[in-house]
Amino acid sequence: MFKKIKWLILLPALVITLLLTAGCGSKQEKAAVQSSSPGGQPAAQTEEIKIGLIPAEDQEEMLKRFDGTITYLENKLGTKVKTFVATDYTGVIEAMRAKKIDVAFFGPFSYALAADKADAECFAVGVRSNGKSTYHSIIITHKDSGIKTLNDLKGRDFVFVDPASTSGNLVPRSMMKKAGIDPEKDFKNVVYAGGHDAVELAVKNKKAAAGADSDITYEKMAAKKLISPEENIIIAKSDPLPGSPIAYRQDLPEELKEKIRQAFLNMHRENPQALGGYGEIIRYEEAKDSDYDIVRETAKVLDLDLTKMK
Fold first, then answer.
1. Cα Rg for the chain, rounded, in angstroms?
2. Closest by alpha carbon to 171, among 8, 297, 54, 12?
């Protein structure tokens, strides 16, 4: 299903390399935002707005879920809206840094990176059906693996989501460090699946002994019967994490940013059917940059200096 990779370098070097080399375009979407002013901002009459989506699940399925969102935004903003899907999280960060996208859905950690290196500014976060905007990182295993605790992971194959994933890499690594586990030294192999759903399926199909995911994807896949909680067992769960934010480029015109912000904050009142993007969102509420300081602190625990990532 995917190629196994045994790590030979430390995580900071890998993340830096990804941020330097990640592509910033998908085959389906290559057009950049049109009409820029000499100052770097889009012209007052914006011809197109491009929204970046992080790869959380099957791309075709994800794009279908966003159809209603895009239609709503086009009607509210009075302009064409296109989606951009990169093959990994850093592709979306690089696309915003290169000003090839105007708005993006980020994970908490990828947002912290984008805020520092791509001038991203968060403005909204989704609220789930439980009334919360927070979620959890989980570590799962197959019921037949014999793994009961984090310490049992030593010597086994483990699958993460993406180097820039919060629940699928950053937080589980922090949980492991607190438990005295070093993935590069203690695991047989470390693999990146590329998406949350791919982690769940890898564990389900016994391609890896255990993996890291978010409880959002876990619950969604269980509800669709794509996985079974009786087979994919949760052995560890993080403290609540700030939800995945939506951010726009800081250099967009203030009037345009306000229109985008209000469109998302009013979406649940004006068109609830447009909320079918990531997870089971019932509305969007305001988000601020300081909400993600906890992510930056977690990066420090893992000796990841965000200010040095280019």
1. 19
2. 297
